[in-house]
Design goal:
Blueprint lengths: L1 H18 L22 E4 L5 E6 L3 E4 L10 E5 L4 E9 L3 H16 L5 E11 L4 E10 L3 E8 L4 E9 L5 H20 L2 E2 L2
Antiparallel strand pairs: 1-2, 2-10, 3-4, 4-5, 5-9, 6-7, 7-8, 8-9
Length: 195
């Protein structure tokens, strides 16, 4: 019986030695879930509010139901990506109120400085439609990746902020942010004041 175990042991050792001779092992890169992006298609938001814009058909526009929400506030829900573009509107009473809203938008964007690796500002300027503002692209592991405001500089003020209901991991959500930024750019370019 000892001979049988000796042969079996020798065979197992020779298999181990043969298996260990391949020295070209390289670790596989870390994988992520594949994200399926829908086709880009847009529809117009027409509601009894002082503005209109185009938004993607794969997102739903819902009335904001937060405690302090106003009738002109909406959330653009990207259900597939577990994200929301929060949209708020204010009528502008005077120059002091306008200046305060613009400063609040800047503060809210730069509140993410602690975790942001960069915050880029871009001026929004569509004089033919009296749409002006600032677009904040925030990079890094922050709660919000995009914020912007639009105004006609006299009577209207509209603000948007993109949030995901996930723990921020920028390298994981970067493709989704890039995809949604195109939708936000379309919203801004198609934005019109009604009066």
């Amino acid at each position: 019986m000892n001979l049988k175990y000796l042969i079996l042991f020798s065979f197992a050792c020779s298999l181990l030695i043969a298996a260990c001779q391949n020295n070209d092992y390289s670790p596989k890169p870390r994988g992520y879930f594949r994200i399926e992006f829908p086709e880009k298609e847009y529809q117009t938001f027409e509601n009894p509010v002082p503005y209109s814009f185009r938004y993607p058909v794969y997102a739903t526009l819902e009335a904001d139901k937060s405690r302090d929400a106003r009738k002109d506030w909406f959330n653009l829900h990207f259900k597939q990506f577990n994200g929301y573009l929060h949209l708020t509107y204010y009528g502008v009473a005077d120059k002091a109120a306008y200046d305060e809203m613009v400063e609040d938008a800047r503060k809210l964007a730069f509140k993410h400085t602690i975790k942001a690796s960069a915050i880029d500002q871009k001026v929004i300027h569509y004089p033919n439609h009296k749409v002006y503002g600032i677009y904040y692209a925030i990079e890094g592991n922050t709660a919000s990746s995009v914020q912007f405001f639009l105004t006609d500089s006299t009577r209207h003020y509209f603000r948007g902020a993109l949030y995901f209901n996930e723990r921020p991991q920028y390298d994981s959500i970067a493709p989704v942010v890039k995809f949604i930024k195109t939708d936000i750019d379309t919203l801004i370019a198609s934005f019109r004041w009604k009066n």
